[in-house]
């Protein structure tokens, strides 16, 4: 009986040391001033937050939001039918293994591997040229297309797994009952199947959208210097410009934004489960 309270206290201590205290330190640093000889210094100021309302930051935030949204929708459109096929397939274990295998290697290594596919004389251009679909190689690398491709490739499993788990619990006898009542395929999908899988859709969308807003190495590797998103902007503020107060303020604003999205999901979750 004592093991359960001890485990709960251990979780509380872990969250306090590695989540709450670091977040409070970042919050504190966001109100401090920049100093070349110290990480942060007095006096306290709101200038770091005021700088986030400049057109430059707004442009980067909107661009990051759009790329994360496109990534999320691409993953959803690919993962939804794939998850359905997994549920109906006799080879579920094999398909799940194929989804999990990429996690066995570093995502950074897999991102660098995409360079060989997307570069000017890469695999994709070679295939398109041999099929006579294009006459000149396409400039795919260091573009928004390359960044979105890398994000979709790395985050696709995070969309598949919640959808698969949700669809596996679905009672397919409801579809047979709808057919017996004369419902069309579109009516069955939109009025029977889709509402019962909405929880998996929302979970998968959050698991893809939130990392897509914050991942910094994929835009750095595939997007180049022209692809500045929120994740690598924060990285540059901390490690390149050594502007810890500004980087902390940007991190806090991003954390609040993601927290609002999670709060909205939590409030709507009971509706999806009912």
Provide the descriptors you would attach to this structure in a database record.
0% strand, 274 residues, mainly alpha
Structure description:
This protein is mostly helical and 274 residues long. Helices cover 75% and strands 0% of the residues. It is built from 13 helices and no strands. The longest helix has 34 residues, at 55-88. The radius of gyration is 23 Å and the shape is globular. The model is unreliable at 270-274 (pLDDT under 50). The protein has helices at residues 3-30, 47-50, 55-88, 92-100, 107-118, 123-130, 144-168, 173-180, 185-196, 198-214, 217-223, 230-240, 244-273. Helix 3 (55-88) crosses helix 7 and helix 7 packs across helix 11.
Low-confidence stretches: 270-274
* End-to-end gap: 34 Å
Q: Residue-averaged pLDDT, rounded?
A: 87
Most strands sheet? none
Number of helices: 13
Strand content: under 5%
What sequence of helices (H) and strands (E) makes up the elements? HHHHHHHHHHHHH
Task: Tell me the radius of gyration.
Answer: 23 Å
The 3D shape can be described as globular
Secondary structure: helix percent: over 70%
Number of strands: 0
Structural class, judged by helices and strands?
A: mainly alpha
């Amino acid at each position: 009986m004592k093991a359960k309270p001890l485990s709960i206290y251990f979780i509380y201590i872990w969250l306090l040391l590695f989540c709450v205290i670091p977040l409070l330190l970042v919050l504190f640093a966001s109100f401090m001033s920049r100093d070349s000889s110290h990480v942060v210094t007095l006096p306290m100021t709101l200038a770091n937050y005021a700088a986030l309302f400049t057109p430059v930051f707004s442009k980067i935030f909107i661009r990051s939001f759009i790329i994360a949204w496109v990534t999320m929708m691409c993953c959803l459109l690919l993962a939804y039918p794939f998850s359905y096929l997994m549920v109906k397939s006799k080879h579920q274990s094999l398909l799940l293994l194929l989804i999990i295998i990429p996690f066995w290697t570093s995502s950074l290594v897999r991102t660098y591997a995409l360079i060989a596919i997307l570069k000017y004389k890469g695999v994709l251009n070679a295939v398109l040229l041999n099929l006579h679909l294009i006459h000149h190689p396409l400039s795919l690398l260091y573009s928004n297309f390359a960044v979105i491709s890398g994000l979709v490739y790395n985050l696709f499993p995070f969309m598949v797994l919640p959808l698969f788990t949700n669809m596996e619990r679905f009672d397919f006898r409801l579809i047979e009952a709808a057919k017996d009542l004369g419902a069309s395929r579109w009516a069955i999908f939109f009025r029977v199947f889709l509402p019962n899988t909405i929880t998996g859709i929302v979970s998968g969308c959050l698991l893809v959208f939130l990392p897509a807003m914050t991942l910094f190495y994929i835009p750095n590797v595939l997007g180049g210097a022209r692809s500045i998103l929120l994740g690598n902007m924060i990285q540059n503020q901390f490690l390149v410009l050594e502007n810890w107060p500004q980087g902390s303020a940007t991190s806090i604003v991003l954390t609040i934004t993601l927290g609002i999205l999670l709060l909205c999901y939590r409030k709507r979750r009971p509706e999806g489960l009912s």
